Amino acid sequence: MKGRTNYGVGAMKIGIIGGGSIGLLFGGYLAEQHEVTLYTRTEHQANEINKNGVTIDQQNTSKTYRVQAFTSTSSVIEEDIVIFAVKQYILEEVLSKTLDLDKVHTVCFLQNGMGHMDIIEKLRNPTILIGVVEHGALKVSENQVIHTGVGRTKIAAIKGENKAFDVKLNEFIFEYHDNWYEIVTSKLIANAVINPLTALYGVKNGRLLENTYFHNQMKALFNEITSVIPSNHEKMWELVKNICKNTAQNKSSMLRDIEEGRRTEIDAILGYVLAEAVKKNMEVAITKFLYDSIKGFEN
C-alpha cells in the first residue's frame, strides 16, 4: 500500500507508466502539486527514483522532486489518473500488463502518431484523454532529465471530460481542447515531416529550414502528407516551420532512436499515413521512400 502525503486541496494521485524522458519530465513537474508514482520497467530505476527523486535540468537551473516509484508489475488501483508515457509500439503490451487499469477512472495517452487509436478506443475507463506533448526532453540517467525545449501539452477527451485532468502549473503548461482529432493530426503531420527527414539526413531540426535542399524536400513531403491527412494547409505549414524553429538545436526523437540503435515510431507515424493513402487509393512516393529508409536503419 502506498503511504498518503498531504498535498493540499485538489491534489490527485497520478500514476505515470514509463520512466523515459517524457515520463520523468511529467513525473517531476506534476509532483509539485500532486502525489505522483512512476511505474518503471526495471526495479533498479524504481530504486534510484525512490532514493534520489527526479531531477529536472533546464538551462542554468536544476530541481529535484520527491516522486515515488514501483515496477510496472504493481497495481495502479489507487490512482485517480494513469498517464501512459511509453513508446507507441509497446503500448498494447504495456496495457495488457497494467494491473487493475480497468478500475481507474481516467487514463491519458501521450504517444506519437495515430496507429494506436483503435487500441485506446476499446478501453472501458469512464474518461479517456489524449495528450500532445510539445516539450523537448533528454533522459541522462535513471532519475534525471534535461528539459531541452519548453512547450505545452494539449489535452483533449476521446471519452468523458477534460476536467478529469485539471492541472495548472506555470512552468509546465497544459491546454485543454474540445477536438481531439485536430490536435492529434496536427502533431502527426509535424512528426511525419520533421522526424523521418532529420533521421535520414542525420541533422538537428533547424537544418530543415536552413538548408535549401532539405527545405525543398520538407515542403514536398508536407504537401504529400496533407493531401492524405486533412488540415488547414497554410496554418499547418506555419506550425511545422515554427516547431523546427523553436527546436532548432534539438535532435528529433527518431534521429536519437536511430543513433542509439533503438526501434523508432515510424509505423505509428508514416505507417499510419501510408495506410490512410491505401484507403483513399492515393500515391505517396516520398512517404513510402522515407518509411522504407527508416525501416532499413532499424534492421
Summarize the structure.
This protein has eleven helices and twelve strands. It has 299 residues and is α/β, with parallel strands linked by helices.
How would you portray this structure in words?
The chain is α/β, with parallel strands linked by helices. It has two domains: 166 residues, Rossmann fold, CATH 3.40.50.720; 116 residues, Orthogonal Bundle (N-(1-d-carboxylethyl)-l-norvaline Dehydrogenase, domain 2), CATH 1.10.1040. The chain is 41% helix and 22% strand. The protein has an eight-stranded mixed beta sheet. A four-stranded mixed beta sheet has the order 4-3-10-9, covered by helices on one side. Strand 3 and strand 4 form a beta hairpin. Helix 5 crosses helix 8 and helix 5 crosses helix 11. The longest helix has 22 residues.
Keywords:
single chain; 299 residues; alpha/beta; Rossmann fold; N-(1-d-carboxylethyl)-l-norvaline Dehydrogenase, domain 2; 2 domains; four-stranded mixed β-sheet; 11 helices; 12 strands; 41% helix; disordered N terminus
What is the name of the CATH architecture of the largest domain?
Answer: 3-Layer(aba) Sandwich
Number of domains: 2
Text of the CATH class of the largest domain: Alpha Beta
Could you give the count of β-strands? 12
End-to-end Cα distance: 43 Å
Helix content: 40-55%
Structural class: alpha/beta
- Adjacency order of strands in the biggest sheet: 5-2-1-6-7-8-11-12
Q: How much β-strand is present in the residues?
A: 15-25%
EC number: 1.1.1.169
Keywords: Membrane, NADP, Oxidoreductase, Pantothenate biosynthesis, Transmembrane, Transmembrane helix
Domain Ketopantoate reductase C-terminal: 182-297
Family: Belongs to the ketopantoate reductase family.
